[in-house]
Design goal:
The protein is mainly beta. Helix content is about 5%, strand content about 50%. A hairpin with a 2-residue loop joins strand 10 and strand 11.
């Protein structure tokens, strides 16, 4: 009983949201997402916009022409990350990532109609990804900050802790289905069909 009280007191408050300063803190500061400072901290590990000079990061960059008749979905699993998603001006899927990982080198693969990224089981990533219009994207992560700029395809996000930002296109209709267990969400009005 004493151990539980000690853990609860150590990790409280469970969630703190400061919308004015674009800052989210979880588990008493164990996870800290600073939008203004553009960094995510999980324990002692920090993901930010600065290049990692320690030599622990690996780069994964490339592009691939996407035939929507053959590839229907892009799957992006990650442990910790900061991922920015935009729409490609053509049928090219483009990515530029930095991966902090102690395991295997990051890679991409295609199985059936799904193109997937494999950053490694415990990797922390920072990526800029441009998706072709009308392709589905699914991002599954534990901790992170995801930014979508005028998406033109279906997007599914499963994120345990973090922040998701969306800048919708003024010319497209969107249907939002948002659920949050702990935290806050802005109000998004789905388009009338």
């Amino acid at each position: 009983c004493l151990m539980i009280v000690m853990l609860v007191s150590h990790f409280t408050p469970l969630i703190t949201v400061d919308e004015k300063n674009d800052h989210v803190t979880l588990l008493g500061g164990l996870i800290d997402i600073d939008g203004d400072g553009r960094k995510v901290r999980v324990g002692s590990m920090t993901i930010d916009d600065d290049e990692d000079e320690s030599g622990n990061s690996q780069k994964l960059a490339g592009s691939r022409a996407i035939d929507l008749k053959k590839i229907k979905d892009v799957h992006i699993p990650f442990m910790n990350g900061k991922i920015s998603v935009t729409t490609s001006p053509d049928n090219q899927l483009r990515w530029k990532c930095r991966v902090n990982n102690t395991g295997d080198a990051p890679k991409t693969s295609q199985k059936a109609s799904v193109f997937s990224f494999d950053f490694g089981k415990d990797a922390s990533v920072k990526c800029n990804i441009a998706l072709p219009a009308k392709i589905k994207a699914s991002l599954d992560g534990v901790n992170g900050k995801l930014t979508f700029d005028q998406p033109k395809g279906d997007v599914t996000v499963n994120l345990k802790n973090g922040k998701v930002s969306l800048a919708p296109s003024p010319t497209l209709k969107y249907n939002y289905n948002l659920t949050v267990q702990n935290g806050v969400t802005d109000t998004f009005d789905s388009s009338d069909d």
